[in-house]
Amino acid sequence: MTVTAGATRVVGTEGATATAVAPRRFPVGFHWGAASSAYQIEGAWNEDGRGPSIWDTFARTPGRVRNGDTGDVAIDHYHRYREDVRIMADLGLTAYRFSTAWPRIQPTGSGPVNGAGLDFYERLVDELLSAGITPFLTLYHWDLPQALEDEGGWTNRETALRFGDYAAHVARRLGDRVEFWTTLNEPWCSAYLGYSSGKHAPGRVDQAAALAAVHHLNLAHGLGAQAVRSVVGDAAQLSVTLNLCAVRAASQSPEDLDALRRIDGVANRLFLDPMLRGSYPADVLADTAHLTDWSFIREGDPATINARLDALGINYYTPLTVAAPDGSGHVEAVTDHPGCGDLSFPDVDLPRTIMDWPIDATGLHELLMRVHRDYDGIPMVITENGMANDDYIGPTGEVHDPERIQYVSDHLDAAARAIADGVDLRGYFQWSLHDNFEWAYGYGKRFGIVYVDYPTQKRTLKASAHWYRDQIAQERGLA
Questions:
Q1: What is the C-alpha separation between 445 and 357, in angstroms, rounded?
Q2: What's this model's pTM, rounded to 2 decimal places?
Q3: Which is the catalytic residue, given 366, 384, 403, 475?
């Protein structure tokens, strides 16, 4: 294994723990964590009063998820959370990012609270605190109650209002123990993969509906932030997590640069601007006017969306390169980027993960610097970063994943460079702690630093977990 860390190259045997890495400069109190989400790990899909989510429905629809996999059992975290917290503690994590499942707390998305659902999260939070691990709670990671989708889902303004109620319920139960709150995880995915390309639940293909979903997700963020603050007060550290694109133009031609502007608009600024500036970008509204008139934006909505935030969560995996239309007049009817079906995304000469995502840590530095520059130096947390790999247990019972170690090391270097360049970066969370249900890919893609044998649920630390433990200890001055 060869690992570059800071300015020092460390060479060891394949799969061995890297022990002599060059220190990077991270601030005192920096959060070292790993992340997960409810549907991907909990299982217990119909226990203790939990209602169905759009992912229960989507996963049961033939052809939607590879191999017909579902999250019914996942990695059984609902029953094994104490074991999982012990693993976190053994790794030296100082923080853990998880999501609460809306249908576990309100089975239909509104009405009475299911006390047993909140009891589970109370037990989890208490277990984390007992282990000295700071909980980072995300209120929504894609598992919308099916009953709300039946009424229009995120295309319906009422869903945003119900989200505010749900956020208040969670805050009332856990606000005395949870300091860090995230409203939404990756609304880009919820809106575009869920309603435009149909790759994710609920599986709709309607670009206009996707743009309505963008606004109602943005509004839900604002209402959720208001609800948490109304219960917890200024003790709540509020954020939202966006999977922002580090967009690059294929060339410096005016046409390619305009393609970059368009993608940056729907992928980044359509979320960033209302959340952090209180207004929608006029060029994006104009670009998409042939799809919708945006009449669902009501007076006062932008101000609600522009709730005061203490930090912005950044999920980063890969950059995106875009080019102008090829001149053929062809427009993709099904697209992840509404209004951009005429654009092309050329291949780039970079190594790739098994997700076929290009690997380039410099994109993380570019993204952090851009947000820092354009949005008044807002504090940030890297809430997800990691890679899928072809992991397996070797003959000696070990899981060697040197590619993941190199990936994480390079991205930590990029994060440290951003800090040196003035970014107020406050934490790093690997995606993910465990192998888990990877949405439409089912169980075929392993992102975890902890290997899970799904038939037995046995957990095995990968080489990357050992490396991350050593890294955390060194950065905290404990090694």
A1: 13
A2: 0.95
A3: 384
